[in-house]
Design brief:
Elements lengths: L2 H36 L4 E2 L5 E2 L4 H17 L1
Antiparallel strand pairs: 1-2
Length: 73
């Protein structure tokens, strides 16, 4: 092979590799943006405390289930 052919083939591979990385990163940014809009964020109260979007009844139920599981082990 001549040097021109090798150089052209290496430039093609460079373009293909960089293009694939660029497309994957754009897709990753799009997926993260979509998920961040779907999943609720934690809310900060005026006193500066972080308030979770999980209801206290859920926390009590999960704690009771964990306690029951550990008790029966």
């Amino acid at each position: 092979m001549e040097i021109e052919q090798l150089l052209m083939q290496s430039l093609q591979l460079l373009g293909l590799g960089m293009g694939a990385v660029f497309v994957i990163l754009v897709l990753l940014i799009a997926i993260i943006s979509i998920v961040s809009k779907i999943v609720p964020e934690e809310v900060t109260t005026p006193s500066g405390m972080i308030q979770s979007s999980v209801d206290n009844n859920h926390i009590v139920a999960i704690s009771a289930a964990i306690h029951q599981y550990r008790k029966n082990r």
